[in-house]
């Protein structure tokens, strides 16, 4: 095995640092409000899609996908982490279904969001445990939590 010279190592180190410094800085960069809104909508759509998939599996409509239940539960679990962060100040305009109450009642919104996240955690845990009755119960609780939050913080669906 050939050892690189100290000069060669230094050149590679300088190159690596220069390459890293030339990358766009993502952490700490301010996103455009429109991009935040679109991201938020995509996360919420993914949550809805995962909830719909879970419902279809639990209702026995797609038994061949029963082995995917954990994937969908973990998807909702991930998508409900720190929901208030998806609604920063300045993202309360344009094509959004979020009501003003999201920003005016931050404490209430955080409480509902935290409850939803806890319910998603409980569902994922129940799915991992495999108890069908517990899974059904945790899914209902999560669904009710989502509905309660939507009632107070999302425009009515047409």
From TrEMBL:
GO cellular component, one term: periplasmic space
PTM field: Binds 1 heme group per subunit.
Keyword annotations of the record: Electron transport, Heme, Iron, Metal-binding, Signal, Transport
The keyword Electron transport is assigned to this record: yes
Pfam families, sorted: Cytochrom_C_2
Single Gene Ontology BP annotation: electron transport chain
Domain of life: Bacteria
Leader peptide range in chain numbering: 1-29
InterPro entries: Cyt_c/b562, Cyt_c_II, Cyt_c_prime
Molecular function (Gene Ontology), one example: electron transfer activity
Positions contributing to heme c binding: 146, 149-150
Stretches of the chain forming a coiled coil according to its record: none
Protein name, per record: Cytochrome C
Organism: Sulfurifustis variabilis
């Amino acid at each position: 095995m050939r050892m690189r010279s100290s000069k060669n190592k230094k050149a590679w180190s300088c190159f690596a640092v220069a390459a890293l410094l030339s990358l766009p800085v993502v952490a700490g960069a301010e996103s455009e409000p429109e991009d935040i809104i679109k991201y938020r909508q995509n996360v919420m759509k993914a949550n809805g899609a995962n909830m719909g998939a879970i419902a279809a599996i639990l209702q026995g409509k797609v038994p061949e996908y029963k082995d995917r239940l954990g994937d969908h539960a973990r998807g909702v679990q991930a998508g409900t982490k720190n929901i208030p962060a998806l609604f920063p100040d300045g993202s309360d305009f344009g094509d959004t279904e979020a009501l003003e109450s999201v920003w005016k009642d931050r404490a209430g919104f955080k409480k509902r969001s935290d409850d939803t996240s806890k319910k998603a955690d409980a569902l994922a845990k129940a799915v991992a445990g495999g108890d069908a009755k517990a899974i059904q119960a945790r899914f209902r609780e999560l669904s009710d939590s989502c509905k309660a939050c939507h009632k107070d913080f999302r425009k009515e669906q047409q």
